Amino acid sequence: MGWRGGEGGTPLVEPEAVSVKDEARNPTWSHKDRLNRCTVSGALASGAPGVVVASSGNHGSSAAVFAARAGRRCVVLTSTGLSPAMGAFLRAYGAVVLPVPVEARWPLTRRIAEHFGLQPVSNQTRTHTGLTFGPEGYKTVAYEIHADLGVPAAVFVPTGYGVVLFGIGKGFAELRRLGGTDRVRRLIACEPAAGGPLAAALRQGLPAAHMDVGATDAYGIDCPVNSYRGVLAVRGSAGRAVLLTDEQLRAPRTKLARAGLWAELSAAAGLAGLRACADEDVDRPLVCVSTSSGFKDRGAGRHRSESVAPEWTAVRAWLRAARLGE
User: Fold this and answer.
1) pLDDT at 124
2) pLDDT over threshold 70, residue 113
3) Domain residue spans of the chain
4) CATH tag, 12-29+132-296
C-alpha cells in the first residue's frame, strides 16, 4: 500500500504475574488492523475497487480505515444491533454500513462481491474458510512477543473463528523453522462457554463444529462455527481450548482496567483463560493477548452519571459513598 498506519508494535504490559499483549494500541483499537493491513493491500494489488466485509464491529471499522487510506470503497454488513457509536465510527471513514440479520450477511457478502467486483475480506459462507492474507498480519504478534520476551511457555488467545490463533501459531512456527527458537509455544484458545465450536471440534476430533450460540456479552467472539485452521493451531502446539462464562470474563476485565487497560469483554478472554487454568501446572513466562478496546462493547457509553449538587456537603457524601479514602 505504500503507507503504514501505525499497526503493530503494541506493548507487553504486566497487570499481574503475566504479560498482556495490548492490541487496543492499534489505529482502530483492535488486533484487526494487522489483518486488514494485509487484506486491503491484497485487494489493492488485485485492482479491486473496494472491499466488502461481514463484521460485528472490529473487523469492519479496521477494513474501513485501510480501504479509505487506499482510496477504495468499503461495504460493511453488520448486525441490526450495532451500537450508534460503532455506526458513527464506521461512517466516519466513508464506509457503507448495511445492518442486516446475521444469517443474511454471508450470502449478501458473496452477492455484493460478485456484482460490484469488491474484494471480500471476511468469509462468504457459514463455514469459515478463512482468508489468504489475514494470518500474514497476525503472525507479527508472535514475532513481537518473541522479540520482547523471548520464549513464552504459552499464549492465551481470545478465540472466535480462530484466525488470530492460527496466525500467531504460524508466526511461532516460522520462527522455529528459521532457527529463532527450538521450542513450540502452547496456544490456548479462550472461547465463550455460550458456544465454543473450536472446543467442540477438538473434543469430537472434527475439523469444524457448528454450535447454537447462547446468550453472552462477549459478542466479538461468539461464533457459531470454528475454522479448521484453529484446530491446526491448537493441535500443532499441544495446546487446548478453554470455555469461559461471562462472569469469568468480567473479573479479568476489571483487573485490566485497574492496570490502565480498558478492554472489550471479549478481549479479556485471554486473561480469563489463564485464570481458569490457575490450578494447573503451567510453566512461565506466559502471555495473554488482549484484542480490543472497551469502546467496542455494545454497552459502552450507556451509563449516565447522576448530577451532583456543587455544595461541599453533597460532594463529600458522594465521595464517601464511593468509599474514597478507604
Assistant:
1) 76
2) yes
3) 12-29+132-296, 32-120
4) 3.40.50.1100
